[in-house]
Amino acid sequence: MRYGTEGRTRLLFITLIVTALFLITLDLRGVAVLGGARQGVQTILSPFQKAGNFILTPVKNFLTDVTHLGRTRNQIEKLRADNAKLKIDLLNRKSADAQLKQLESILDLAGTAGYRVINAKVISQGSTQSFSQTVTIDIGTNAGIKNNMTVLSQNGIAGVVKDVYPTTALVMLATDPTFKIGVRIAGSQQIGILTGRGSRSASLQLLDNLTTVKVGDVLLARGSVANRPFVPGVPVGYVTAVDNSAGEIAQSGTVRYYTNFGGLGVVAVVLAPSSTNPGDALVPPKPVPTPIPTVTVYVTPSPSPTK
Amino acid sequence: MLTRKISLSAPIFLFIFIFQEAVVNQFKLPGGGFSLFTIFALVWAVISTPEIAALTGFGAGILMDMSQSAGGPVGQWTLIMIIICYGVSYLGYGDGNFSGNPLGVVFFVVVANLVTELLFLASSALLGVTTGGFGQVLLTLLGNSLWTLVITPIVLPLFSFMHNIVFETRSAL
Q1: Do B66 and A37 touch (CB under 8 A)?
Q2: pLDDT > 90 fraction of chain A, expressed in percent and rounded
Q3: I want to staple B69 with a disulfide (CB 3.0 to 4.6 A). Which of A127, A146, B58, B160 is the partner?
Q4: How far, in whole angstroms, is CA A32 from its chain's centroid?
């Protein structure tokens, strides 16, 4: 009896393994049924994700405030003085304001370049268990979103649309290790390829061995054929380190993205590029150092008392 | 009997999966966070028979493959979860030191979770799925394992209770 049970378990195990291998083969051969199943599951999940995002936004804001305790101490002290209802109201308002600010910046960016964009809200962070960097946005094919469209943040490139569903879309962030984008250096027009590294910094590889790059150079997207996946002129990041190894054919370097991927709340998907190449019009202005006021104290000796 | 157990388990798995996608994935936790669904499937497998564990792995793997953040082809997580769930159940089945002891279960789940990630990396390499740089992968592995070590003891009583409800329920005539 025991052997019978063991034999049945082994048979079941082997059957399941074969089934899994069968599924992998079907998917790699591009059988549409499996893609449809994934899409169906995503369609079912998206209302839950939207509800989860709505409910958890105050909690997330609270956690963000806790992690930024040093920077927001004054704000937290002020919030402590309020009652519970006002706390929640304030947190919701803060979230809305932050998203509005992001949205304004995105629209400024898109308006300067002449892109036709559609705004979207980030409703879920992708699981990093698969070692990928993705977010889900709340618009999909119903809003005209297609695969391989450029996604902008308030400061520049955020990623590219990877998968589209009727009401949601999966965006591969520029930090994803598989993300690659053709870039050019603003001003000098040298070209190179930027690759994500899983964090806010990325690797730059120049293509021409006769050109040079220096720290502080600003990188813009070169644009793709038919403007997909990348429209030209989008600010990408700036060079933070240059590798001048003698063995390298061309220079390489490290780039810091303009986009803060940890705080992505609102993004914009580029539906159509501008009719003309924006060139270097979107290069962000260099930060102007805030002058530190100098206080000069003149000491005048009091008149000595007359004897 | 088996059909009844599966039909009772399926809604629980679905609920945990939706909870994972709708709630847990909302938080960008340091070190890559954790997968509550994987922890649940592994706990379920550790305290089940190998036969149930293999089916658990299959069902959990299919759901994980359906997740939009699953990087590889459909079937990759299914294959991994079948192997891992069957493996942990086979190794721990009948050994009360592991499957009957909360510390043993936590140890099994943490190690199995790490092996799951390593198997995913290995199969991704075979299937041509890019998984990132060495440092980032190492950070995710470490972070995921630590989170699993923290979360598993917290959720273990609840998951164990649910397992008991499903598997100790007798059908009434």
Answers
A1: yes
A2: 18
A3: A127
A4: 29
Coil, helix or strand at residue A242: strand
Q: What is the pLDDT of residues B149-170, one digit of tens each?
A: 999 999 999 998 998 888 875 5
Give the count of beta carbons closer than 10 Å to the beta carbon of residue A19.
16
Domain-embedded: residue B172: no
Q: Is residue B154 part of a domain?
A: yes
> Which residues 20-39 in chain B show a CB within 8 A of chain A?
20-23, 25-28, 32-33, 35, 38
Residue A161 near residue A148 (C-beta atoms within 8 A): yes
Q: Which domain holds residue B108?
A: 2-167
Model-wide pTM > 0.90: no
Residue among A16, A129, A197 whose CB faces B54 most closely: A16
**Site from A11, A13, A28, A264 to mutate, B interface, most B CB atoms within 10 angstroms:** A13
Count of domains forming chain B: 1
Does a structural domain hold residue B71?
Answer: yes
The pLDDT tens digits of the residues spanning A163-214 come to 898 889 999 999 988 899 999 888 888 889 999 888 888 999 888 777 778 8
Rounded distance, CA A14 to CA B41, Å?
19
In Å, how far are B5, B55, B56, B96, B100 from A2, measured between CA atoms?
A: 21, 19, 21, 19, 21
